[in-house]
Structures are given as C-alpha cells and as structure tokens.
Amino acid sequence: MKALWEGRIGLIWSGLLLAAVLALPWYKGGATLASALAEGVAGRVWLLPLVGAALALALLALLSRDWRIHPAGAALVGAGLGWLLLQGFGIGLRGPALPGLGLLFPTALEGQPGFGWGAWLAGIALIGALAEVLAARGFCRGERFAAFAIIGIVSALSLFVFFPIVKLMSAAFVGPDGTLALTPFLTRITASDLWSLGCLTGSGRCGVVINSLVLGILSAALATALGLALALLVARTDFRMKRLLRAISILPIITPPFVVGVAILVLFGRTGLVTVEVAEWFGVRPTRWIYGLPGILLAQVLAFAPVTFLVLLAALEAINPTLEEASTTLGAKPVTTFRTVTWPLLRPALAAAFLLAFIESLADFGNPIVLGGSYDVLSTKIFFAVVGAQYDLGQAATLSVLLLTLTIAAFWVQTRWLGRGSYVTVTGKSDAGLVAPVPGLIKWAAVAAVVPFVLFTVGIYAIVLMGGFVKDIARMDMAPTFGHLWTAFSFEFNERGIQLFGSAWNSMITTLWVSALSAPLTMAVGILTAWLIARQDFTGKRAFEFGTLLSFAIPGTVVGVSYIAAFNVPPIDITGTMAILVICFVFRNLPVGMRAGIAALAQIDRSMEEASQTMGAGGGRVLRDVVLPLIRPAIFTALVYSFVTAMTAVSAVIFLVSARHNMATAYIMGRVENGEYALAIAYSTVLMLVMVACVAAMNGLVGKRKLGRRSTVTGTPHPAE
User: Do 82 and 61 form a contact (C-beta atoms < 8 A)?
Assistant: First the structure.
C-alpha cells in the first residue's frame, strides 16, 4: 500500500510536466497559449520530443504500479531532462550553437528566445521526477525529501554557480589569437608580479597572491579573536551593557561599503582629524600610513568581526552547560574547565568563523579599492582587468583560478584541524545545567580586546552620523543642513497621495525588495544544505560541500561579470531583471547559513532525530519539528547576514543593476565617485536605520531556542576535597 501511494506521488511531477508543455508559454515574452506543443506544431519541431516524453511519463505513472522502479521511467526522465538542456543551449537567439542541429531542424536557423514559465516549470518537474527515481533505487537510503533536496540544490548550483564560472574560466586558456591553448595560462600564472616576495626580503613589493594571503590570514585571525571576545562577554559574563555591546558589534555589518572607508580617511587620512592632532602634539609630519595593508586590515577586522561574533555566539549558546558544571563539581578550576571543556567544543565554530572571514577577506572589493593605495590584492586586480583601460578577460580568469586555489587550501586546512572528533553537546538527555561564567583572566583579556574596538567603532559612526548632516565633511565645512537628506528622499502629499521625488527612492525600494526576497531563500537553502551535509550520507558529499562554498570564494566582480556572460543571452536571459539580483545574492551568501548550520548541528545528537524517525516521521518533518527549533541561533545568523549583505553588497551588483532595478550601493558608489560624500553618508545613515529595524523584526520573528536551562543557582556544588 505504501509503495502504491509513493508511486502515485509521481502523478504530481508528471502533472506539472504536462502543464508546462501543454498550457504555459514556453518562451520568455510569449503569448499565453504559446505552449511547447503549440510552438512545436507551428514549426519549432524540436520541442515535440519533450511533449512526447511528458505524455509517456504521465501514462506510465497512471498505469504502472510504481513507475519509479520501472526501467522506462528512468529512461523517460533522463531523456526529457537531457533534451531540455540540449535544445535550450544548442539553439540560440541567432540559430544553432551546436553543429548538425541546423541540418536536423532547418527552422532552427531562425533561432529561439529564452526560457519562459513553461520551460522553467518543466525543468523543476523533471528534477523532481529524477529525485523520485533515485530515491526508489536507494539514494539517501530511500529518503525522498533528502533526495529531492540534494538533486535540487545540485541542479541550482550547477546552473547559477558552476556554469557562469566555467564560462568565464575558459577565457584563462584563450590566447591573443582567440584559440584555446595552455601556454597563455602558464604565462599568466607564473608572472613575477603574482608571486614576488620582495616585501619580505626588503627588495621591493610582494606579489598580488602573497599580499592577498597575508591580508586574509591576518584579517581572519584578528576578526575571529575579536568575535570570540565579544561572544564570551555577551554569553558568559555579567557585563551590564550586553545589549549595547551587541548593537555596537552589529553596526559594521549593516554599514554600506565605501562609507567606513571614507570615515577612516576623515579620521586617519593625511589631513584627517586624528592624524592632524597627533602630528601637532608630537611635532611630526602627517603621513599616508593608512593607505595599504594597515588601512585595509583595520577596515576588514571592523567589518568581519560581527560575522565571527554571530557564529561563535550561536556555538556558545548551544554548549550543554552540564558538561562544564560536571568539570567544576569534580574540582577543576574555571581556567581548566574553559581550556579542557569549553574550548574544544568551540573548535567547529572557530574553524567556521576563521574560514568565513578568510574567504570574505579574499573576496573583499570595497575596502581595498578605497584604502588599498599601492597594496594590490586579487579582487582589485580582477576588477581592473575586467573594467580597466586594457580589457583582459583572460587575466581576470587566471586570477580567479588562483583565488579558488586559496579557497580550496583553506577548506582543506579547516577539515584537517577538526579531524574526526565528536562535538555533540545537545542530546535528548537533561540539559538544565547552569552556564559556567568565563574565568576572570579570560574575561579581562576579552574586555581589553573589546574596549578599543568599541571606541573605534563609536568614532567611525560619529563621523558617519555627522557627515550626512553637514555641508561638506570632506572639506570640514561643518554647517548643519538637511539638504542632502532631502535631495535623496524628498516627497510630498497631494490629491494623488504621497509622491516620491528624491533621487534615491528607486534604489531604496528595489534594495528592500531584493533583500526581502533573497534573505529567507538564502536562509532556507543554507540551513537545508547544512542538514544534508551533517545528517545525510551520500556519494559526493565533499564535492557537494565545496560547491556551496565556491560562490563565496569568487570575488563579487567576477561573479557579476560571469553572470552577464552566462545570462545575457538565451536560454536564460535574465540580465537587467530583479531575478538575477536575487539569484546572485542567494548563492553568494549561501555558505554563511550553511557553515552556521553545520556548527550548530555538530553539537546536536542524532538520537533525537532518530527517535522521531522511529515514530514514523519523514525527513521533512524531522527537519521542521526537531532540528529547526534547536538551531534558531543559526537561523538568525543566516537571516541577518544574508539580509544585510544584500542591502550593502556592491562588487557583484555593480555589473547587474539596471536603470529600472538600481541598488542602494550602486547609487552610493556613484555619489562617492562624484565626490558627493555628504549625500552618500546621508543615504547610508537612512539605510542603516532601515536595516536595524528589519534585523530587530527578524529577531522577534525567529525568537530564542529554549532548552530548559536554569538561570539561577538552585544548589551550590562543593568541589571534591
């Protein structure tokens, strides 16, 4: 009976496939009734095999006891999916892209438009049917939900991550004459300006790869250490201003790019406030010390520490306090308990935080472009190779290969450091222990690290808040004004209601829509991916995990250019639409939710999920009712990071925005390029206030995980004599 019911579920996928080929417009911009069948009868006969496959699969699902294990079922699904891709990519807007299709289908010489609603729905239906076929044959131990999730995510990654990058990467092997060869790649990748160690030997500058590696390691190490200090003070001390500390630590992550760089220059530039005062006090000549590695490192640590803080805070809150309580009861000193119990359990979160900060540092574009000076890094070199005076796509592709190599190396080091140890602390047993406070020595060390960070952050944001409401902060014209704010967000009420006239309204509305759509999608896909990696065993898991990290490692500039190259022509011509912005953010920010979810799941025992499955719950219900309530901190981390990143990202979207769908960061970048710093800062202030309100709403929506732990001491344990 169960097999019969599961077989009938295939009717859903076959029904969707029939609707796609018989009732929905197949091409983008096509008429309502211009389905695949109608287009095929009208002359595009290459669509008729898809219609035949859909009809045959529906008939098989109706007549067969279980079409999923029928040999014809797998053949029809595979043939349908293969032909969908072959005809879509093989016949372009100007005719066949593959030799022989023109002879086989003469009308293909006229070309075809991009995919419409019918083609997209057909692809989804065929992917769902493929997951059913694989699950019936033992994939993921027959778990249909997990099989569909894996096949769906792999398909999405292949289309929106691997395909654009592979299309761009092929340019690394293209010579000046346009032919594919290995020599151009070897010439570019062995250039001395990439690998020079001159800065270490005192004979000149270091190469771009060395600069990027040094910056990435320093930035990740400092950001992780600072994030740990913040997390310990918030989660494990009686610090009275925890909410203020949490708010101050979150501010850098909700700040648009360029603004912090401008504020740092106002403070520490050659004519900056602090630089001038220090020069007068000590009688020295102001210098440009902020440009280069010091300035970029300062800005990156300020920007990435909140990300590591969120990851480590979620891990600290997930540790079972009964383990630390047992250590104290056995007579261990607080420092010993922290070193032998708390610290080892934090290793997955520490590794995840370091990896995220390292990859983010490699991909950072905004800070190096403002503060880099002569300190070249991979992201800026790629940007200028693409949009500079000498357009060199091959050089950009070669540098992207190097960046991927650094990412793979970081991923391997993280895996080796964690090893095969178990970090489970949340089980189905009692979890009502009292959270152990941080030892005094560690607490004061954390305070010593956090206080300068807080003071520096306050100084930066004092400049940001003030800069938008004075005439020209760059020239120290401090006359107060609201003119910049009114220029950006002017409006009026009349008989037609509220009318928006400010120059920034269009970009603000588009940014809110894109962020609101991409954030929950990013969180859902990221947490689902983490659950698949942590809880499912399937072939290719390592490659699956690396694939999710790939888009995070590629600089946003390369992602933007690769998206234009891949999605500016049929069959997927979505350039200039809001869809391409949402898709870009979903797959670029996916690793944050995934790594936070993996770190949280590493501390939850599988026995609770196994108990639910024993009672008959499927994979989807176990994920919804058992796992998600226990990893709410990770859900909040994924939501917040994906939302604010969509609101503040610039490197990728600068290539993808259009006149109709402009983004806030593109607008701000235009103002900075024009020297309108006050207008850019005023817009950024409004943007930050909007993000604070949205993050507070997310916090209330997600809520906190409740594990029944005590908040007060019910009995004083006596250490063993």
Answer: no
- Which residue has 């769908």 as its token pair? 661
Among candidates 393, 449, 493, which has minimal Cα distance to 165?
393
Residue 673 has pLDDT above 80, yes or no: no
Q: Looking at the predicted structure, is the pLDDT value of residue 305 above 70? A: yes
Q: How many angstroms separate the Cα of 211 from the Cα of each of 244, 301, 559? A: 36, 16, 22
- Cα–Cα dist 300/215, whole Å: 9
**Residue 69 has what DSSP assignment?**
G
DSSP one-letter code for 403: H
Q: What percent of the chain has pLDDT over 90?
A: 23
Backbone angles phi, psi at 708, to 5 degrees: 70, 30
How many angstroms separate the CA atoms of 502 and 482, rounded?
13
- Contact between 361 and 304 under an 8 Å Cβ cutoff? The reply is yes
Q: Is residue 653 within 8 Å of residue 665, measured between CB atoms? A: yes
Q: Are 677 and 467 in contact (CB under 8 A)?
A: yes
DSSP 520-533: HHHHHHHHHHHHHH
Angle between helices 144-157 and 541-553 (to 10 degrees): 40
Distance (Å, whole) CA 247 – CA 92? 51
Distance CA 145, CA 153 (A): 12
| Structural contact between residues 171 and 394, judged by C-beta atoms closer than 8 angstroms | yes
CA 701, 706, 712, 718: dihedral to nearest 10 degrees? -150
Which residues have C-beta within 8 Å of that of residue 99, sequence separation ≥ 6? none
Spatial contact of 113 and 28, defined as CB atoms under 8 Å apart = yes
Asked if residues 382 and 558 have their Cβ atoms less than 8 Å apart, the reply is yes
Is the peptide bond between 571 and the residue preceding it cis, with omega within 30 degrees of 0?
A: yes
> What totals of helices (H) and strands (E) does the chain contain, helices first?
36, 6
Q: Which domains does the chain have, with CATH numbers?
A: 2-98+108-137 (no CATH), 193-479 (1.10.3720.10), 481-702 (1.10.3720.10)
CA distance 424 to 428: 11
Query: pLDDT digits over 434-443, tens only?
Result: 666 777 788 8
Distance CA 46, CA 84 (A): 10
pLDDT value for 5: 47
How far is Cα 716 from Cα 714, in angstroms, rounded to an integer? 7
Whole-angstrom distance, CA of residue 686 vs CA of residue 692: 10
Of the candidates 12, 15, 20, which has an alpha carbon nearest to the alpha carbon of residue 47? 20
pLDDT band at 499 (very low <50, low <70, confident <90, very high): confident
Please provide the DSSP assignment of 460-490 as one string: HHHHHHHHTTEEEGGGTEEEE-SHHHHHHH-
Q: Return the H-helix or E-strand segment holding 640.
A: helix 632-648
> Do residues 230 and 305 touch, judged by C-beta distance below 8 A?
yes
Q: Which residue matches tokens 């949280």? A: 600
Give the pTM: 0.78
* Helix H or strand E encompassing 610: helix 607-614
